[in-house]
Structures are given as structure tokens and as C-alpha cells.
Design a protein that fits this description.
- The chain is α/β, with parallel strands linked by helices.
- Helix content is 32%, strand content 21%.
- A seven-stranded mixed beta sheet has the order 6-5-4-7-8-11-10. Strands 14-13-12-15-16-17 form a six-stranded mixed beta sheet. Strands 1-2-3-9 form a four-stranded antiparallel beta sheet.
- Strand 7, helix 6 and strand 8 form a beta-alpha-beta unit.
- The radius of gyration is 21 Å and the shape is globular.
- 46% of the residues are buried.
């Protein structure tokens, strides 16, 4: 395998999470007895540009297909994040009814619906037909395709170049990251701006967030590496913010290299210095996560075996991709976790890939009254606590596994 950005041969293993099915390939009852495809989830660090990456063992077109089950709008905290972003962007960049906005990987219109509310012309690019159809119901137009330079050229010719390009949690999902960024360069107006959000690799390592690694996340990114990738395509990162989403993310602001209207702000150099001080420009920095992942695995397995032996019941909440990575790395199935609850009707009635744990609607939590509820999407645990605090009525307690096992105190 060669680096998807600079072409350097890769041999430095960042983490090896074993053989795993694609994290969003949920199974119907009829599929349980059929052979299940698994792929190596082995991640490498490039010694030249420090891009952390997994090989494209399953094509993007096979992952983001008509059966793709991730719909952004089922998280109230994520919707609020999108609404706040829209208010900020409209004010900061002076967006109005003569502007044009595009969001790449616009999903079910979770964000662009707020642009529509403000009467700001916009459209999305979304390869999954099911989520694009859901966006249409919100009044959001979607182009069903994968974004790259070729599509950017077509869109620029047919619709004109854009004032603002939005890409939330998509930069990590593209196998050809150079072509993707070249597309951004091509579709931006001369004074246009692109904002991209992605989980910060520094936070992933520091917080032992290995469960955020899965096949559809091809790349794991630092500001230094993203700056290098953008510069190669003639773009300049002129601002950056650290934001709390997904366990700690970055929002980078980029423009054309030659654009004189956007001055590079001190936040960029400041964060680059933080990354350097952390050791992100040294290969040794990337060698600690495997041991931490093994510790989390052992802690969780010890807890689940203890509860099973004591006759207690444990359920999971949130059939998230990160949960599938964690459960499959630990080898956990329905013998240790009875069932999983998820708010999305698109997952209910299905079985989690690999573990084959059944997924039910939230009302089953009240019916089954488990002793413990393991929160898999720990990044929204506050939201889940607030929505399902009623488990205290029967003495139920919430549990999280990351970055270390934590059990809620008894009420």
C-alpha cells in the first residue's frame, strides 16, 4: 500500500483492529445465516506526510449505496450544531439570496435545510439515494454522485461556481483525497471559501478513540497534514477552530492560495505548534494506540462477563459505526449484550454487523428494563442521558467504555 496523498510506501502500522465487516452493513433476519464479508481493519501511518490511513478494501460505491443506513437528522445535538454553523456562516460570509452554497456529503439535508430557511440558494452532493430522498422532503436538492474534480467541473459549468463549500465529516471518507481537494479548488469562486470539519487525529490518539476507525473512514487527519494536502492543490487554510463534535474535531477554513481577501489568522500557526509539541511530526507518536485499545477491550470484557455471571442484563444504546468497531474488536455478541436500542427506524429490526446483536426501537428499553445500558456513541452521551434518564426508575445505570470504563453511580 502506498500513501493516498504523497505516494510513499507504507509499512508503519498505526493500529490493527483485525478482520471486521463494514461498520454500516447491517443485516436483515434473512441474512444472518449467510456468509458475512469481512476485511482487514489495519491502519498505517505515512512517514513522509503523517497521513494515517486504511486501504480501500471495499469501494466507496459499495459502502455509500442504496442500503446506507446513516441518517444525520436522528441526533438532536448534531442538528443544533448544523443550525449554529448556518447562522455563523451566513453572517461571517455575508450569504444572501444572490449567493450559492454547496454541501458535499449533504446526507438527509440535516444542514442545508437551515440554508433553505434563510432563502440562501444551495444544493447538496450526496451519493446515497436513500438519504438524498430524505433531503428532498426537507426542500433540499441533491446531486446523487461522488464529488471529485470531474464532478466539480460539471457542476461549475452547469450551475456556476460557489461562494461557500461545506464538507462535514467527508474529507476522511474519500479514498482519493487529492482528487477531492482538487474538486474544491475547481468549484470555488475566486473569493469563495470552503469549510471542512473532521475528527482531529490528535484527539483520537489522546482520547483512545480507536472505535472511530472503520472502513469508510479512509483517512485520519491532523491540521498539518490537511494543510499540506490543500497547498498541493493551490488552496490555503486561513483559519481553524477546535470544536467538540465527535470527541474533538477541527473546522478548517480554506480559500484559493492567491485570494487576498482572506488573511491567514494566528489560529493556524498556533495549532500547528500545538501539534508539533505533541509529537505529531514524529513516527513514535503514532505507536501508542494499540496498547490503549487492548486495555479498553479487556476492561469492557471483564465488566460484561462479571455482569453476566451475576445474572445482570446489559443492553447497548446507539447502533453507531463506532459501536460496531468496538464490539467486533472485542468479540462481543448477544451472549454478553442482549440487544441494542437506536432511534433511527432505518436500523430497527436489523442486526449489527459482525456481532449480530438485534436493534430495537427506544420503547423496548422500558419494556426490557436492563440493569446496565452501554452507550456506544459516547460523543452524544449527554444527549442520551437526558433523553433516557428514566432508566433510573428500575435502578438502571449507563456505562461508557471510552477512553476508560465508566459506570454511572446509583441513583
Amino acid at each position: 500500500m502506498n500513501c493516498r496523498h504523497c505516494g510513499t510506501k507504507l509499512s508503519h502500522v498505526f493500529i490493527d483492529l483485525g478482520q471486521q465487516p463494514p461498520s454500516n452493513s447491517f443485516l436483515s433476519p434473512e441474512e444472518l445465516d449467510r456468509p458475512e464479508a469481512v476485511f482487514p481493519l489495519k491502519v498505517f501511518t505515512c512517514p513522509e506526510c503523517f497521513l494515517v490511513q486504511v486501504d480501500e478494501l471495499k469501494k466507496s460505491s459499495e459502502i455509500f449505496n442504496n442500503d446506507y443506513v446513516y441518517f444525520s437528522s436522528y441526533s438532536s445535538s448534531w442538528l443544533e450544531h448544523a443550525r449554529r454553523y448556518t447562522d455563523m456562516a451566513a453572517e461571517r460570509f455575508g450569504l444572501g439570496n444572490d449567493s450559492l452554497v454547496v454541501e458535499i456529503a449533504s446526507n438527509d439535508g440535516y444542514l442545508l435545510q437551515y440554508m433553505v430557511e434563510k432563502s440562501i440558494p444551495c444544493f447538496g452532493v450526496e451519493p446515497s439515494v436513500a438519504t438524498a430522498e430524505a433531503a428532498k422532503e426537507k426542500g433540499v436538492e441533491s446531486v446523487c454522485d461522488f464529488f471529485g474534480q470531474a464532478l466539480a467541473e460539471t457542476l461549475a459549468a452547469e450551475r456556476g461556481k460557489v461562494d461557500l463549500l461545506i464538507g462535514n465529516n467527508v474529507l476522511a471518507h474519500v479514498p482519493d483525497i487529492n482528487d477531492f481537494v482538487a474538486g474544491i479548488k475547481h468549484i470555488l469562486k475566486d473569493d469563495g471559501v470552503a469549510t471542512l470539519e473532521f475528527p482531529h487525529l490528535m484527539r483520537l490518539i489522546g482520547g483512545c478513540q480507536f472505535d472511530t476507525i472503520y472502513h469508510e473512514h479512509f483517512s485520519y487527519l491532523s491540521l498539518g497534514t490537511v494543510q499540506r494536502i490543500f497547498e498541493k492543490q493551490g488552496l490555503r487554510v486561513f483559519d481553524v477552530e477546535e470544536i467538540p463534535t465527535h470527541g474533538g474535531s477541527l473546522r478548517v477554513y480554506a480559500c484559493h492560495q492567491e485570494d487576498g481577501t482572506h488573511e491567514t489568522l494566528p489560529a493556524v500557526d498556533s495549532l500547528l505548534e500545538v501539534e508539533k509539541a505533541e509529537g505529531m511530526t514524529s513516527l513514535s507518536y503514532y505507536e501508542t494506540l494499540q496498547g490503549e485499545a487492548d486495555r479498553v477491550k479487556q476492561e469492557l470484557l471483564d465488566f460484561l462477563h462479571t455482569q453476566r455471571d451475576a445474572g445482570k442484563t446489559v443492553a447497548a444504546y446507539g447502533a453507531a459505526a463506532k459501536g460496531n468497531t468496538l464490539l467486533n474488536y472485542c468479540g462481543i455478541g448477544p451472549e454478553l449484550l442482549d440487544f441494542c436500542i437506536d432511534a433511527s427506524p432505518h436500523k430497527q429490526g436489523l442486526f449489527m454487523p459482525g456481532s449480530h446483536i438485534p436493534v430495537f426501537a427506544p420503547e423496548v428499553l422500558r419494556e426490557r428494563r436492563p440493569d446496565y445500558v452501554l452507550i456506544l456513541p459516547w460523543n452524544i452521551k449527554t444527549e442520551i442521558h437526558a433523553q433516557h434518564d428514566y432508566i433510573k426508575e428500575w435502578g438502571g445505570r449507563f456505562v461508557t467504555a471510552m477512553p476508560t470504563l465508566s459506570v454511572q453511580e446509583k441513583a
